[in-house]
Amino acid sequence: MNDEQRILTNRQGHPVQDNQSLRSVGERGPATLENYPFIEKLTHFDRERIPERVVHARGTAAHGWFEAYGKIGDEDASKYTRAKVLTKAGVRTPVFLRFSTVIGAKESPETARDPRGFAIKFYTEDGNWDLVGNNLKVFFIRDAIKFPDMIHAFKPDPISNRQEAWRFYDFVQHHPEALHMVTWVKSPWGIPADYRHMQGSSVNTYKLVNDQGEAVLCKFSFEPKLGVKNLTSEQAAEIQKHDVGHATRDLYDAIDRGDFPEWEMCVQIMSDDPHDELDFDPLDDTKRWPEDQFPLLPVGRLVLDRNPSNFFAEVEQAAFGTGVLVDGIDFSDDKMLQGRTLSYSDTQRYRVGPNYLQLPINAAKSPVATNQRDGQMAFYVDNGGENPHVNYEPSSQNGLREAPKPARDYHQWVEGHLGRYQTTRTRSDYQQAGERYRTFEDWEREDLIANITDDLKQCPENIQLRMIWHFWHCDEDYGRRLAEGVGVDLEKAKALPPLENRPAPGADGDRPTYTSGQAEGPARS
């Protein structure tokens, strides 16, 4: 293959000059609709599998309810948001919660080392709200244009159909922001014991908007009342010998016997500005917001109390999208969130069909009235106007009309040059991964080192050296123990130059310095 053939292009044959960044208004501004290379890439990716989900194929779910406290921490919730689902104390909102693994196919084992999906559909009085998150509070990448590449690298080899460690780390070695997530996933936190003892998180940053049109940044978290339990690789392997669906069985049996799992919903809140005092951008979903600075504030309780009556009709056909928000909850400029908002709903239209929202499991329980008609598998018309002949708006002939606007709507000031940007605040790519390593208990560190060591032994030397270089910059002990386990020369790894076109870790290219005890340890049972 000559050099010209090696150039990455899109399906139209256009050379791709930047495959790393969405087009946005300034470094932190919103993405723009004319992101054609991104849209082409994501919509093709959404259609790569039929009929099961491309990701999150293996899953189970249950019905339940959410009850707001009417407060966020000690303050009235209306101070931050006008969303009724969060402000009306004591009202029980029906929910459907789907748990899943990410990479494996529909019949893959639930003991897999993999993030877990935690997707909730709230059937609120103002329409559906979908909160589509994971168990871990961070992710591998911070720009959605990289999502297809990431999943391709983590999925089985297109030739051998085997998941290969070298493909995973070949991708990761070029993305230092992934080190934080890798540290979580390769530790026991990468294999939750079951779904009832698992956290949930929005991962992405949203905004809460109040009646005055004022907004704050927020992240959502769900803390299990039963505590958190995880498995080592050995424990998972033992379970997998006897049951590849142990977590589904555990959830179904617990609800069936009346042992209803419960989580406390919390939010972290931050003022809506860049926060230059932080080492990271709060819109970067590869980073956690330090809980000592931005505490988890209780918002309400979520309980699961009913199993599905038909697995296919409910669990398999359940469709979630990050763009499904209610008034009082809004988008931030988080580039992963904005990309997911296109991809998730586009996937559902392809996988389930254009009328997937007419299915009972996806349909809102509040009144629905649109001017949308027809399409494959349409089986009713949700026309709420007095004149069924009018399927457009506006009209003087008794058709549908717009809802009243809020007294004070939220308006975000946006200013910047249109272009493709990567964040310049990268110091914490190494810092938070190192902090996490140091807050793990000894047995968690030992399991983490053993898992990554086993992986790196399957990789070529250049990947081994670069990954040890990365981990040494996170924490010297982390890198040293991996070098010893893999059997490579640590000094040879440390001598590697920084990645091309990537900022060197730390201000001067050396390993960042830390203050002990910076990070608060994760909750445990």
Automatic annotation (TrEMBL):
Pfam families: Catalase, Catalase-rel. Coiled coil: none annotated. It comes from the Bacteria. Keywords: Heme, Hydrogen peroxide, Iron, Metal-binding, Oxidoreductase, Peroxidase. Residues 1-28, 490-525 are annotated as: Disordered. Heme binds at Y344. Belongs to the catalase family. This is Catalase.
